[in-house]
């Protein structure tokens, strides 16, 4: 009878250890949920990128991120807080650019600028940014390519990255 009770205790202990180990192992082996705004450069050239977005304090533009050919960079880490983001980029080698109709401020060197009006009067340059509607997704990726868009400009496509 003692043998049966000992086996029962060991079986109950093994079940308890397994019950506790499964949640711990699932947490340790789970892939982290990446939420961010990434830009990928599918060209062979170095690209400089600026981003604009609406923050609680108002409009902000930031730059320059230098993205080597065939690589990606995260411009905003963590879940996205805005629905709309705006990008302007320049090909550092060929002089081309990916732009749009939304005017915001940029600077020659690294910058973080509050406000999008009176750029020149405040000592900045004006640039046309392209709008990306993330649809309030937690993460988004834009890819710059050499392929022409329907209007003849260089293409930059955006998508939710899951």
UniProtKB/TrEMBL annotation:
InterPro entries xrefs: DUF1036
Pfam families xrefs: DUF1036 (PF06282)
Superkingdom of source: Bacteria
Protein name as it appears in the record: DUF1036 domain-containing protein
